[in-house]
Predict the 3D structure of the following.
Amino acid sequence: MHTTPLNVSSTNEVEPITATIELVTESNIANVVALEVLAFNADPASRWLYPEPRQYLTYFPQFISFFGGKAFEHNTAYYIGDYVGAALWLPPGIEPDTQPLVDLIQHSLPEQTQADMFALLEQMEHYHPTEPHWYLAILGVEPKHQRKGYGSALIQNILQECDRTQTPAYLESTNLSNVHFYEQHGFEAIGTIQAGISPTLFPMIRQPLRGSQKSNILNP
């Protein structure tokens, strides 16, 4: 697994990119959280939770910190370029910080949304693998830089680690339009998650590749 800056070139998009991927450190966590807030500003799930601008800007940074913050603690959070995008991975055996997340939901959401959100979390738990796995808690690219290959570059180091150690990877896509992107990297949808009037989430798992299998996976 890469723990030093990684130079990545992607030529499969409209314009080739060359970027540097680096570990997030304590000194730039706030920059990465701000980036993720921008990246998810039109996401169906995040804006269902916090539809009003001030509400979104107040509470969604906290949501990111609680849901993906363990990645900062375990040195498995990465950003690319000048905070163009970031991936928050939770390594095997590590789960989101549940109690602070529950507290945030209870004091920041109306009762009906709370009920639907807790129902979503219960369904997410149902699909979550029980075997050791890498969990892509949050992947975000600033809107003006999306569809240029940055997201693909960000997840490659951990997917390579998954193949090296023969460990699955798992995520929940909060946007139907992103499902195909993950399929191109070997993930498969294993169901749908929805409660009340919430948007639909798509749990996806990627089994580790072996040898010749890797040549059959596109690298957008």
Residues 1-15 have pLDDT under 50 and may be disordered. The beta strands are 6-10, 17-23, 77-80, 85-90, 134-141, 169-173, 188-189, 202-206.
